[in-house]
Automatic annotation (TrEMBL):
This is Transcription attenuation protein MtrB. Keywords: RNA-binding, Transcription, Transcription regulation. Residues 4-69 form the Tryptophan RNA-binding attenuator protein domain. Belongs to the MtrB family. NCBIfam families: PRK13251.1. GO terms for biological process: DNA-templated transcription termination; regulation of DNA-templated transcription. Pfam families: TrpBP (PF02081).
Length: 73
């Protein structure tokens, strides 16, 4: 059941974490990827991943548009 859409995360500071959470009755972290400023991760929702948590300052591009995570001034 992988969603064909990709989510793009562009880190705007060092140490941004992209955390994958499991699909199913248990919702647990299963993967954490650390991005430094300017690094990009391209990811999908899959059989194993139902949600993602972004920690740190990043731009997140998806079918829903662009959102910014991280500290607001
Ligand atoms: N093995 C994971 C999966 O197939 C890889 C993955 C896909 C992932 N999307 C992710 C990891 C998003 C972290 C965040 O689901």
């Amino acid at each position: 059941m992988t969603n064909p859409d990709y989510i793009i995360i562009r880190a705007e500071e060092d140490g941004v974490h992209v955390i994958g959470l499991t699909r199913g009755t248990d919702t647990k972290f299963h993967h954490s990827e650390k991005l430094d400023a300017g690094e990009v991760m391209i990811a999908q929702f899959t059989d194993h991943t139902s949600a993602m948590k972004i920690r740190g300052k990043a731009q997140i591009y998806s079918a829903h548009g662009v959102v910014e995570s991280g500290n607001k001034k």
